[in-house]
Amino acid sequence: MRSPMRTKAKDDIPHVAQDALKQLGAKLREARIQRGWTQREFAQRVGVHESTLVRLEAGDAGVTTAVLACALNALGGLQGFCEPQLHPKVGGALIETAIPRRRVGGVRIPRRLNLEAYPQLKQLAWNRTTKDIDAEDALSLYERNWRFVDVDALSDKEAKLIDRLKKKFGHGVLNV
């Protein structure tokens, strides 16, 4: 059963705001499609269930602002709101406004990465029992825990790895 307060709050949203939410949802959907992501892939990147993403793309006023912020972040659209400190070792801007190419040629990364070779990644994977990690999982760890990465302490090797991971799995975007 829905809370009457919650339903009333949705009903009180002005039509202009409802239209804006629908337009925003349509733009999010368009950006997702341009990147070649399915709803399931985008939902995983945002960290929500697929049905929540469907509601977001439909402009449902009941979707929280946190979900909206996560969706914008996954698309690289939070740049104007909160720009991260950029560092040249990480390959320039962490969030790029241009829609990345779907396929990047020449980017070779081993399937499994030895944590000993990448000190910052090793710290982020402190709770893992294995000595190696899947490359795509490594990118996810960097993105989710970027606030703990000491960018100044990154070795050139690890900075290049982050850049290659970003190009291969992140469609050219590091979602931090």
UniProtKB/TrEMBL annotation:
SUPFAM superfamilies: lambda repressor-like DNA-binding domains (SSF47413). Residues 28-81 form the HTH cro/C1-type domain. PROSITE patterns: HTH_CROC1. InterPro entries: Cro/C1-type_HTH, Lambda_DNA-bd_dom_sf. GO terms for molecular function: DNA binding. Pfam families: HTH_31 (PF13560). This is Helix-turn-helix transcriptional regulator. It comes from Chitinimonas arctica.
